[in-house]
Amino acid sequence: MSEYLERMKKKAQAFEGRGDLLILGIESSCDETACAVLRGKEILSNKIASQIEIHKRFGGVVPEIASRNHVLAIDNLVKEALDEAGVRQEELDAIGVTYGAGLLGALLVGESYAKAFAYALDKPLYAVNHIRGHIAVNYVASPDLEPPFVCLIASGGHTAVALAKGYDDIVLLGTTQDDACGEAFDKVARVLGLPYPGGPQIQALAEKGRPTVKLPHPFKGVDTLDFSFSGIKTAVINYANTVKMRGEELPAADMACSFQELVTDIMAENLVRAAHAYNCNKVVIAGGVGANIRLRAKVSELAQKHSLTACYPPIRLCTDNGVMIAAQAACMIKAGRLPADYDLDADAGVKP
Ligand code: KG4
Ligand code: ZN
Known about the structure:
This protein is α/β, with parallel strands linked by helices. The chain folds into two domains: 152 residues, Nucleotidyltransferase, domain 5; 166 residues, Nucleotidyltransferase, domain 5 (2-Layer Sandwich). 44% of the residues lie in helices and 18% in strands. The strands form two sheets. It has a five-stranded mixed beta sheet, sandwiched between helices. The chain has a five-stranded mixed beta sheet with strand order 8-7-6-9-10, with helices on both faces. Bound molecules: 5'-O-[(R)-(carboxyoxy)(hydroxy)phosphoryl]adenosine and zinc ion (ZN).
């Protein structure tokens, strides 16, 4: 263990029992540079520099362009987050940064910045798993929430149900066998001629449609906690091609509605099935697709029917942000995890 880490470990030991830690969270895993300051569970600032407009013209995120724009944004954004919070950098207790999962080049920007920042300030740095950050933001959004609970992770890169046994103790119960749900939303949106990111676009279009198109349920009648979305996506593509060959018009709104209804049914049902299987009375939603209003409505409805408590973050905390990274750093501190050493590396493919 380096001398630096020995020193950080001692500083971190002094955090025990404190519920008012000032933590800066830094996120740069994909197309959003984000920084936030948390005091305990209070959000003092939450700054996001979104690159959506830049990547839109390519129909998805271009990794190299994402990295370069993180470099341009990050320094100002950290300063803005501290200013808005009314916190001087020396007052921070700790820094959390995403080390994975995500785009390697993009991750390295946030991580290099955070390492230099923490080292210069002599503050403990926590290497945050982005996916766990999506779960942890629920502790801020619902301050009374405590583990254990069963959680649906529904983002652009991951889809899973997990058991949160402790603040930093996540056990996967079922995962997608192919595409992530957000990826499926984005790909189907492209087939329907909608811009990136597809999730909010499909949601808006679906409001004008009805679920008239029959799409295949991947695990109909099978008792599993796993997911699969590529068959549904392929069915949408095949349907669109057939309609085009016939010279007919694609019923885009009905397709958006049919797709959204099926995918949100699958996710809500799996979450409740997991709660029953693991005897949990709390269900939680995490990740960008958690912003979907139909998913939220279905989880609420099912939770009420089965006497479960349902928690989900406000929409602005579902997609990538710095609050979730600071929140997960707080969970790691609570769980007694070691801060990172200065040889911390990024891990693009880390699992939840
Ligand atoms: O969690 P997130 O911000 O990034 C990852 O960690 O992957 O999730 C982004 C994903 C995108 O695929 C986007 O289309 C989807 O979340 N998304 C939605 C909605 N808002 C964002 N999907 C469905 N309905 C929404 N309202
Ligand atoms: Zn995310």
